[in-house]
Amino acid sequence: MGMVTKRKKMHYGDTHLQRRWRVRNRRRDLDQIDDDLRTRSGELINQNVDLEKPGFAQFYCVHCAKYFIDDTAMQGHFRTKVHKRRLKALEIEPYSIEESERAAGRGSFQKAKKRGIETQPTKEEVIAGKRIKVEEKVKTTDTDSTPATNPARATRSRPEKMET
């Protein structure tokens, strides 16, 4: 019987290549995108022509920080799971310095606020005056409701067991 051969390491010493591969697909962080949404969303949708960027920088998804080659590719992107996941991640308010201080014990805990975020309007709608909305969701509490005022919370009486 022969010895089991050891697998050879093929790419020894290519850490410079690994770094390049690791950061190639790097996108903007959620807090940076949130800042863009609040301050300059209209400016990012209506960018000047830039010949170096895909689609000459005319088709840009503000939520995902991506450029697309044409409007059909961008509209197709709006229906993908990647875009919907990003919208879901942007619903929660980004982590702030005040929140980190509260976590360290310098204040009381506050739950992160949920917001309602919609997909960005088309270029024609932005020119007409429509803007990206970032609204806080209002959460109602049912602690004050009683079964008499709230029929959804009323308990049902169970039928008694039947004898056979």
What does this structure look like?
There is one protein chain. The protein has seven helices and four strands. The strands form two sheets. A two-stranded antiparallel ribbon has the order 1-2. Strands 3-4 form a two-stranded antiparallel ribbon. It is about 35% helix and about 5% strand. The mean pLDDT is about 80. It has a domain at about 20-95 and about 110-135. It starts with 14 loop residues before the first helix and ends in a 28-residue tail after the last strand. A hairpin with a 4-residue loop joins strand 1 (about 60) and strand 2 (about 65). It has helices at about 15-25, 30-40, 40-45, 70-80, 80-90, 95-105, 125-130; strands spanning about 60, 65, 115, 135. The chain has about 160 residues and is mainly alpha-helical.
Principal-axes shape call = extended
Task: Tell me roughly what share of residues is in helical segments.
Answer: 25-40%
Low-confidence stretches at least 5 residues in length (pLDDT < 50)? none
What is the average per-residue confidence, as pLDDT, rounded to a whole number?
80
| Number of beta strands | 4
Order of helices and strands: HHHEEHHHEHE
Structural class based on helices, strands and sheet pairing: mainly alpha
Give me the Rg, rounded: 26 Å
Count of individual helical segments: 7
**Ends apart, CA distance between termini:** 74 Å
Work out the strand percent. Answer: 5-15%
What's the main sheet like?
Answer: 2 strands, antiparallel
Spatial strand order of the main sheet: 1-2
GO molecular function, one term: nucleic acid binding
Family: Belongs to the ZNF593/BUD20 C2H2-type zinc-finger protein family.
GO biological process, one term: ribosome biogenesis
Organism: Drosophila miranda
